[in-house]
Each structure stands twice: as structure tokens, then as C-alpha cells.
What does this fold into?
Amino acid sequence: AGLVQEFATDLVLLAVIPVPGIDPTVRVWDAGHSMDIPYTLDALMVTLMVLVRIRYVLYWLVILDPLTDSTSSVYARSSCVDLNLRFVLATRCMKNLRFLLLLWLIAISVSAYCMLVAERPFAFVDTQLHPEDHESSMESAVRMDRFHNCLWLVIITMTTVGYGDVYPSTDIGRLIAVVSCFEAVVLIALVIEITNTRLSLDDSSQRLVDFTYRVREYKETRKAATCLIERLYIVSPVYRKLHPTARSRTKLGDDAY
It folds into this structure.
């Protein structure tokens, strides 16, 4: 019933853990600075562990969803609908704004942590090579080996603001920023869709709005027609015969027309 595949997937995900006593240094060539950036294996494994375990967070959200209760499961089987992770997440993203905001929070937090892991070794190496460039307080305020700076960078990147006060220095950090941009495109599209869904009117409300505008247009048309008939009557010979004392007004009306 698909349990073997789930079991194998869980084994692979749970196997991604730092191994005690095995902590070699992995050097990655950075073309922007023409130097090797040293990364420790435990930091890379912890980052990978965080990424793969997002699956369990999503599964936890799916388990707590009302779509996966016993009644919904029975109805889904009778309707030949597969209540899998993709179906529940797509439904929640289209219907629940709080769930979508939670996904925003998860994406921002994970991207900021990955940015910190990517930028921290370069900041350490650059401090050792150029200590005079890191003595000012302004320079330390924009250092990317601080989590709050990485968090700020990811937020302004995913919200398409991009102040430019902080930016990634390594190639891996720039790659993470690009991935964050693509994440933001998807999440912003979902926010726009759910906003349109929330603001759209149902059939009864739309009929009420249409009826109200039709009544208003009818009243305005009737008022305009009344004014037109009144003006035509004032300049007509019938009005002159019935109101002989209003010749000056009639003459004025003739001159106007």
C-alpha cells in the first residue's frame, strides 16, 4: 500500500545527520573572490538535515488538517480522491491565509539559516585576511555572519524590496538569494490568488450589487429624461399659450436653443 516507499524515504531522510568524530573541512572555490571558502562537514550536514526535515513539518501540518480526518478520508475514497501531501497543501494554500503565512515564515527562516551557513566562513576568512576592514561599527552591522542580517537580507529579497544595504558575498550565498527569489514568486502568486478569492463575491451578493446599480442607473436616467422633457416643454408654443406672462423666459429659452 505504498508503505515500503514511505519507509525507504524516511530512512534516507533520517540518515542525514552529522557523524560524531568525522568533521573534515570542505573547501569550495569562490569565483567572485578567487579563493577557497572552507566549510565544515557538520555545518553542511546540519543544513541538509534542516532542509530534508521540512518534509516532516509539512506532514505534521497535513495530519492536523481537517481534510485528513476519518470522515473526509471515507468520502475521499468513495470519490476516488487521493488525500496525499500535495492535495492537502494545495487546498490549504488556496483557502487558508494563515497557513500560507506559516509557509512564508518557514521559507524565510530556512533561507536565512542557509544564508548564514554559506556566508559565515567567508566572513571569518575575510576578517583574518583584512582585519582593518572590519574595525568600524558600520562594517560589523552589515556582516553576514550574523543571523539577523541574513534574516533581513532574505526578507527584503523575498518581498522584492532589495534595499542593497546588505548582500551575499559568496557564490553559494548568491545562489541561495536566487532560490529565495523563486520561492517569493510562488508565494506572492498564492497570496494574490487567495486575496482575490477572499474579496470575490458569491452569486447572491453579486446579484444584489447588480440590482443596486441598475436601480441607481434607472433613477439617474429618469431624472435626466424629466429635465429634457421640461426643457422642451418650456420652449414649446403650448407653454407660451398657457403662460403668456412668461414670454421673456420663453424668448431666453429660444435664444439658448
Q: What stands out?
A: DSSP finds twelve helices and two strands in the chain. The longest helix spans residues 97-129. Strands lie at 25-30, 35-40.
